[in-house]
Design goal:
The structure is a single chain. The longest helix has 31 residues, at 69-99. With 290 residues, this protein is mostly helical. It has helices spanning 35-60, 69-99, 103-120, 123-146, 156-171, 175-183, 187-216, 222-233, 238-248, 262-272, 282-287. The protein has one domain (29-287). The relative contact order is 0.18. It contains eleven helices and no strands. Helices cover 67% and strands 0% of the residues. The chain starts with 34 loop residues before the first helix and ends with a helix. The chain binds fe (ii) ion (FE2) (2 copies). Residues 82, 134, 137, 169, 172 line the site of one fe (ii) ion.
């Protein structure tokens, strides 16, 4: 095992039952008035419902082989959280389609790709791929919560959704990894899979962004494209900022909690949580009387 400290497995992972007012998403360029930044985020959102369903399935397959009771408990929370993410992204995706993005076309392609993955690849590969995807998602989530400039200029319902999604990705960031280490444990194989996963993800994110921007027919802005490039690749941009945490995955003894992250859960709670959007809170009951 890469990790001997199981303290993190005591962390209670519970889905927050959110209800975001997605009908308020009125602007096509909901992110900084920039079609490429908006399409990049729409592409991410388009891939979540089916992508995350595959993550759950790949972990669920190994559920009976897990002996650690704390981890078993966390797997339950992980499944609950991912299922809610899929649900909320489905809601926002239909609003994005109303604006003209056609995320449904991305979903159609993804459905075929996942069907191929399920029939052609081993269960070990599917689980390893999920571990890699979860690492990439978690470092993006940490970046979103750490660096307020990253999502600056994004309209509220989408931004609230992404920040909520981020906090839960951080909470469950070690679950698939711990399952893999307990039932498979082959680190070399995991590192090889990461190289495949990162290549596929780069291709997909780029391809989806262009497809969605073209679908809207509002893509022809050089200024917006260069704005996207500096947001992504410029100083303090996502590309440069994620390089180090990405590379950490290959280090000997890597574990998703090695560099902390719990403080970001507290930060979200303090700065971004909106109880009136959480069905379990009293504020939600007041805002939505029966
Ligand atoms: Fe998720
Ligand atoms: Fe996740």
């Amino acid at each position: 095992m890469a990790d001997t400290n199981f303290e993190h497995q005591k962390l209670a992972i519970k889905p927050r039952h959110m209800d975001f007012p997605f009908g308020r998403l009125k602007k096509l360029k909901f992110f900084d008035d920039n079609i490429y930044k908006s399409s990049f985020m729409a592409g991410l959102s388009a891939s979540f419902p089916l992508g995350e369903a595959e993550f759950l399935d790949s972990v669920r397959y190994f559920r009976d082989k897990i002996n650690n009771p704390d981890l078993k408990h966390q797997v339950k929370g992980f499944i609950g959280q991912e299922a809610h993410h899929s649900r909320q992204h489905r809601f926002v995706n239909s609003e994005l389609d109303r604006l003209g993005y056609r995320t449904d076309k991305i979903e159609k392609d993804l459905k075929k790709e996942i069907a191929k993955l399920v029939t052609k690849q081993t269960q070990q590969f599917r689980l390893a791929y999920t571990v890699c995807s979860e690492h990439i998602t978690a470092i993006m989530a940490e970046y979103a919560l750490n660096e307020p400039a990253f999502l600056e200029g994004m309209d509220a319902p989408m931004k609230d959704l992404l920040l909520w999604h981020s906090v839960e990705e951080i909470e469950h960031k070690s679950v698939a990894f711990d399952v893999y280490m307990e039932v498979v444990g082959d680190v070399k194989y995991l590192n090889k899979t990461m190289k495949i996963a990162i290549t596929i993800m780069h291709l997909h994110f780029t391809q989806r962004m262009f497809k969605l921007a073209f679908n809207t027919k509002h893509w022809a802005s050089f200024k917006e494209f260069t704005g996207f490039l500096s947001w992504m690749f410029g100083k303090g941009g996502m590309w440069r900022s994620l390089r180090q945490p990405y590379k950490a995955f290959y280090k000997k003894g890597f574990h998703p909690w090695n560099n902390g992250g719990l403080e970001l859960v507290e930060k979200w709670q303090r700065e971004y949580a909106q109880p009136e959007q959480n069905k379990a809170s009293a504020e939600y009951q007041i805002a939505h009387p029966a």
